[in-house]
Design a protein that fits this description.
Largest sheet: 7 strands, mixed
Number of domains: 3
Strand order of the largest sheet: 3-2-1-4-5-7-6
CATH topology of the largest domain: BirA Bifunctional Protein, domain 2
Number of helices: 16
CATH superfamily of the largest domain: Bira Bifunctional Protein, Domain 2
Subcellular location: Mitochondrion matrix
Distance between the termini: 55 Å
Helix content: 25-40%
CATH class of the largest domain: Alpha Beta
Protein name: phenylalanine--tRNA ligase
GO molecular function: ATP binding; phenylalanine-tRNA ligase activity; rRNA (uridine-N3-)-methyltransferase activity
Shape: elongated
Pfam family, one: FDX-ACB
Organism: Certhia brachydactyla
Length: about 600
């Protein structure tokens, strides 16, 4: 490893590292050799470094590192900068500026997988790791400063000066004096993945008997075809799906029918709020004809609709509406199976795949997630016992997974749907739009669907029931389950392109997740506007636009003020928008640029008048 040390005072820290195996040390300081050698113990440390084969370089400016090393010697595996300071009585602003230029300089000499270690005195960093923590404006704001250069804080731990052989801190106010390092912290930074480039993307799917292509909504470009459930995937959602399927197969004969389920539905979904749907325009000339749709349905291609009988339309010669949308649920595919009686009583039909729903921005509300849907036809009068058997099996599997990950047995409960009103999380609330629910499946110590609902259980609608059989279905949100089981606090982490996420789940092993981006900085921006007269403001469209413009870096949108102008009756809304990335560096300038773009597109797409 090549290690670069910057701003050394008496070189005692460098001397302590120089004996490590397979390590080449390059120790530097800002002063000339004559100035540096005059510090207590420095001459002895410099001799030790040179005797061990280390390089010692003087007059190195940490903000211009590229200038001090030839192209073949610029790649360092680790860069140390202990207790940086502009010197004398420089305030927090000047020291932030020093760190900003330092981090930008590091990008030119750090290996791709390298680390930057910055030690700061207690309170200077401005992170929750500092005890006591300074007010943000009075700190060096190190995480936000580093983010501006593309770095994320991946670890922070105590700087244990007493454990470093021969180390003596020096340089208090640019003098040969020591300073207090009690409570000091070492901050470890790594390179962030680059911001995503959302280039337009088209996707193909089967619709009836015809393969069609369509333009993917920009907010879903990085999520539409990730293959998390494919055979070679080690993603936790696939692991959970496979474990659940294996557990269910112990109690029921299982038939997997998830392959080739079309992404698009056609028609107008009854009962579902249209603002929750991703509407799709097919590529020119690709809308299937009535004959092709009829042929596709005859061949049992599962294209079905909420509340609309396409089979009947085709049989009666009625035109099939040419309106398409991304599937918000796998339930219509299950209903198509039930309708065609394409199942064996007692056999569990298992469907899985991504589904797409527009929703508000919260840590647990996701515009796309992986659904596991199981369907079981049972003899009338036995449905209650079968539901209990199904739930017991799911409980046993999830309990086993959770204990294996955290050693803690979770509380998994079946809650009567009639107990709950509006206090539902977005997953449960949307499921209620799809039809009557008998039970919620909740995970956690508090059986509250507002935060812990991961599944719903329902019986088939009356029109799909037979005299002898009752069809029971259970829908599970695999992404929410993965978050709860692996301790992932933000759904966006499941979709990160950073390879450090999947490295924590080798060969599909479930583990407690450890974030590689600690204390990410957040940036607050307020936006105020007049709502068009006589129109209801579509908050879901507002949140969806924020998702698209920010590339999912808006973590919260809160209504701050709702004002109605006396006399005119005009209504003004004010929202606070919080930008924060869970997996990559987000600087203040980038967040401000996103806010400006958001304001422009609000006028264009939502018809509001900015204030």
């Amino acid at each position: 490893r090549r290690i670069l040390l910057l701003g050394e005072g008496n070189f005692s820290f460098s001397a302590a590292l120089c004996g490590a195996r397979d390590t080449h040390v390059v120790a530097t300081c800002y002063e000339s050799e004559e100035e540096a050698a005059g510090r207590g113990g420095a001459a002895r440390s410099i001799r030790r470094l040179r005797d061990s084969g280390a390089e010692v370089v003087f007059s190195v400016d940490c903000t211009k590192l590229k200038e001090h090393f030839s192209p073949g010697k610029r790649e360092f595996d680790r860069i140390y900068f202990n207790f940086p300071h502009c010197g004398r009585k420089a305030g927090v602003v000047k020291n932030r500026q020093l760190l900003a230029r330092f981090f930008h300089s590091c990008t030119e000499v750090l290996a791709q997988e390298g680390e930057v270690h910055v030690a700061l005195c207690n309170g200077q960093g401005g992170t929750p790791a500092d005890q006591p923590r300074r007010e943000w404006h009075n700190s060096w704001q190190i995480v936000a400063v580093a983010a501006g250069a593309g770095f994320i804080l991946s670890d922070v731990h105590p700087f244990e000066a007493e454990a470093i052989d021969g180390y003596k801190c020096t340089g208090y106010r640019s003098q040969d004096k020591s300073f207090c390092v009690e409570g000091a912290l070492n901050h470890v930074f790594t390179r962030s993945t680059a911001p995503l480039c959302f280039t337009p993307k088209s996707c193909k799917t089967q619709l009836g008997s015809q393969e069609v292509s369509f333009q993917v909504p920009q907010v879903l470009v990085d999520k539409i075809d990730r293959g998390f459930l494919e055979v070679n995937s080690s993603h936790p959602v696939r692991t959970i799906k496979e474990k659940l399927s294996a557990g269910l197969s112990q109690a029921f004969p299982v038939q997997n029918i998830s392959s080739c389920l079309p992404l698009l539905h056609q028609g107008h979904p009854d009962g579902v709020c249209h603002s929750n749907i991703f509407w799709i325009a097919l590529s020119p000339g690709e809308a299937p004809s009535t004959e092709q749709m009829s042929q596709g349905l005859a061949n049992a291609v599962l294209v079905s609709h909420f509340g609309q009988d396409t089979d009947k339309n085709v049989q009666e010669g009625c035109p099939v509406p040419k309106q398409f949308y991304l599937r918000p649920s796998l339930l219509p595919h299950a209903q198509a199976i039930i309708k065609k009686r394409a199942f064996s009583p007692g056999t569990l039909q298992v469907l899985s795949g991504p589904v797409f729903r527009k929703c508000r921005i919260t840590p647990h509300s996701m515009p796309v997630f992986h659904e596991l849907l199981v369907v079981l036809a049972v003899s009338r009068g036995t449905e209650s016992s079968c539901i209990q058997m199904l739930v017991d099996n799911i409980q046993t599997t999830v309990n086993s997974l959770h204990q294996g990950v955290s050693g803690i047995k979770p509380s998994i409960s079946l809650q009567e749907a009639t107990r709950f009103g509006a206090e539902l999380n977005d997953f449960a609330a949307f499921e209620r739009q799809l039809g009557e629910i008998q039970h919620f499946l909740c995970v956690g110590t508090d059986p509250d669907p507002s935060g812990s609902c991961v599944g719903v259980i329902r019986t088939a609608p009356a029109e799909l029931k037979s005299c002898e059989l009752v069809v029971v279905s259970a829908s599970l949100n695999l992404d929410l389950l993965a978050m709860l089981l692996c301790g992932i606090s933000d759904w966006r982490m499941l979709w990160t392109s950073d390879r450090r996420f999947l490295r924590q789940f080798p060969e599909g092993e479930l583990r407690l997740f450890k974030s590689f981006s600690l204390y990410p900085p957040s940036y607050l921006h307020d936006v105020s506007f007049w709502v068009p007269d006589g129109e209801e403001f579509d908050e879901v469209a507002f949140h969806t636009l924020a998702r698209r413009v920010s590339g999912e870096t808006v973590v919260s949108i809160q209504l701050r003020d709702n004002f109605q102008q006396p006399g005119t009756g005009r209504r003004s809304l004010c929202y606070r928008v919080t930008f924060q990335s869970c997996d990559r560096a987000l600087g203040s300038r980038e967040a401000a640029e996103m806010q400006l773009q958001f304001r422009e597109e609000m006028q264009q797409h939502l018809g509001v008048t900015l204030r």
